[in-house]
User: Fold this.
Amino acid sequence: DVKVTQSSRYLVKRTGEKVFLECVQDMDHENMFWYRQDPGLGLRLIYFSYDVKMKEKGDIPEGYSVSREKKERFSLILESASTNQTSMYLCASSQDGKTYEQYFGPGTRLTVT
Amino acid sequence: AQSVAQPEDQVNVAEGNPLTVKCTYSVSGNPYLFWYVQYPNRGLQFLLKYITGDNLVKGSYGFEAEFNKSQTSFHLKKPSALVSDSALYFCAVRPYLNTGFQKLVFGTGTRLLVSP
Assistant:
């Protein structure tokens, strides 16, 4: 089974802090994704990566950056956390190709106070 | 641009009754369609997908979905609901295009509540 793990289930940070969310997948998938999930808005894509050191902006990249130094690891960085970044963050991975489904991690619920 | 609509925020059904969770989509060309389920405090789990072929797709946990091209719909169904099916369900679409990286677009989710 594909396993996608995220470094924290729950995280509380203060406004202005730099926040790192880490994601690791164990199936040698080429593609990795970061989403945020908010009630009534569904999942919105923040960033994705289709190869090591490659990254592309998703629909809502403002206030975020990412890093992919190794194929199995994809990090989301909040440079200066703000209260409007309080959300559930979901990482996913998929094999290359249009027909492959994405596999999700358990999520990190981030609260910024 | 592609989009997905899940017109119902919540669906209520009694255990043992059939259930339907609705999804309509808009996409250029032929779609790839997916259903995911999210249990409380968990990530999304893949349920089923439509790529091509038979319009009725069978997936995990007894769920199935029917692709209807003329109505641009991909409704999720189950003949007999269980209390344990209570969860948040997401429909997603990506277009069949040969160039570029095609993102998966998710609907806003439908909460399914199955009462005993």
Observations:
- The interface with chain A takes residues 9, 32, 34, 36, 41-46, 49, 51, 90, 94, 96, 101-104, 106-109 of chain B (CB under 8 Å).
- The first strand of chain B starts at residue 3 and ends at 5.
- The radius of gyration of chain B is 14 Å.
- Residues 13 and 114 of chain B are 5 Å apart (CA to CA).
